[in-house]
């Protein structure tokens, strides 16, 4: 079993994403001071494979199949419905009309005010017991 050749020079053929952009994103984390070339390549390749998997899954389980196309709503539906991809739900929200969104915000604000009052009462009870 031969080990994979270390990416050098020809790495662009092995990965589609621009390594310079991946490096910039990785360096944006305050915990990262330097990035090993192998780590950079593997992160880029893993990201590429993940995006391919997300796209294939969304296409297979979405309505875009009917039109032979992958749509944004296929991706957002996958993020919402599939447990594996739920961490993307904030990044791929369902498209809704602005008027509907504003109504939702107003409703959340009203419910939030009710919820805050309930939480304060619970906190008071907790202090009495302590």
Write a structural description.
Its main location: nucleus. Residues 108-130 are annotated as: Disordered. It is built from 6 helices and no strands. The longest helix is centred in the last third of the chain and has 32 residues, at 98-129. Helix 2 (19-27) packs across helix 3 (37-61). It is mainly α and 130 residues long. The protein has helices spanning 11-14, 19-27, 37-61, 64-67, 72-81, 98-129. Residues 118-130 have low confidence and may be disordered. The chain has a single domain (19-113), classed as Histone, subunit A (Orthogonal Bundle), CATH 1.10.20.10.
Describe this protein with a few key phrases.
130 residues, mainly alpha, Histone, subunit A, 6 helices
The biggest sheet amounts to: none
Helix % is 55-70%
Number of strands: 0
Cα distance spanning the termini: 64 Å
Total domains? 1
Order of helices and strands: HHHHHH
Our Rg estimate from Cα atoms comes to 23 Å
Mean pLDDT: 80
CATH architecture: Orthogonal Bundle
Fourth-tier CATH superfamily name: Histone, subunit A
CATH class: Mainly Alpha
Main structural class: mainly alpha
Overall 3D form: flat
Main location: nucleus
Region (Disordered): 108-130
InterPro entries: CBFA_NFYB_domain (IPR003958), Histone-fold (IPR009072), Transcr_DNA_Rep_Reg (IPR050568)
Subcellular location: Nucleus
């Amino acid at each position: 079993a031969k080990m994979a050749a270390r990416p050098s020079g020809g790495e662009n053929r092995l990965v589609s994403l621009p390594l310079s952009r991946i490096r910039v994103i990785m360096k944006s984390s305050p915990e990262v001071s330097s990035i090993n070339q192998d780590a950079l390549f593997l992160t880029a390749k893993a990201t590429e494979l993940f995006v391919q998997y997300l796209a294939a899954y969304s296409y297979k389980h979405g309505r875009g199949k009917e039109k032979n196309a992958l749509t944004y709503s296929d991706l957002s539906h996958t993020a919402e419905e599939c447990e594996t991809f739920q961490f993307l739900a904030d990044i791929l929200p369902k498209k809704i009309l602005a008027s509907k969104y504003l109504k939702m915000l107003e409703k959340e604000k009203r419910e939030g005010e009710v919820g805050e009052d309930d939480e304060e009462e619970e906190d008071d009870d907790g202090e009495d017991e302590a």
